[in-house]
Write the structure tokens for this entry.
Amino acid sequence: MNKVAICDDHKIVREGLKQIISVFNDFEVVADVESGEALFQVLRNHTPDIIILDVSLPGRSGLEVLKQLKIMNPDIKVLVLSMYPEDQFAIRMLKAGASGYLHKDSEPGILLDALTKISRGGEYLSPKITQLLFREMNNEGNELPHQALSDREYEVLLYIGEGKSISEIANQLSLSVKTISTYRTRILEKMHLDNNSDLVKYIMLHDLSQS
């Protein structure tokens, strides 16, 4: 029986995943937590075979949590399950060491397929992710401005695109308003843009809005 831990800040998502996974014969949910900090507490006493990890978490982002997990245990298996489409975060998460990436709209059968492949030492790559990886290899050296952002800067960019204020983003990420303002300044500088309006236009132009 493969032991699964779920890390997602929405209780209804965790409960839904537990119900779905409960009908899978080879998998058992042994822990469900709402943040990276809580996950690391669980890992002190438990060693799940697979961790299902969300991208958007309070405090440390899913990307930061994933990187720390891989430092702690390079062999740990992580399936990212996110509301963000593949072309927004999948490549970043895979580069950080994820074994697979699924959108939360995926069918339960696809989740089972992903968990099964990962449990057997493989990776789950949807046709869309495979296409993205191929495109990135062909476009190496010609990245778009947003692809040069750090993981946290990119996350802040997407929140700005959703229309969230600096204080709202700070609250969501459990960071100070000053820190988020600094990230915003860096984003504008790196992308050679002037203000939030320019950022929103860029997000719309490159279809980075959450959908």
